[in-house]
Fold:
Amino acid sequence: MILMYSQQTAAEIATWPKLETKEDAEAYIHQRVSEDAVDYIKLMHESGAGLMVKPILPDIKLQEAVIEAAHAAGLVVVAHALAHDDTVAILKAGVDGLTHTFMDKPPTEELIAAYKLNNA
Structure:
């Protein structure tokens, strides 16, 4: 599937961080804390399940590295995840809450348990 974005959307996406390693995650969080007055970090954890687009789902180990670095810096970490399985995975990775959450199937006991892990 080829995704077509407006020039404005493509320009915004181009500014998103390109993290690949734990070291990238740590450096990014350090940069955010030292340069900006940030209160939280928002992760995108989106496989596109149930949607017409299929973005690249970030590696959960990389997401965990961002969460760990952000928590070490005293930041809250929230996530966007519109699929049930993505929501469970990112909750288990340690986020503090969701900004947008699943819509592809009803809640499960596994999901409820994942929300309770971190009092999300």
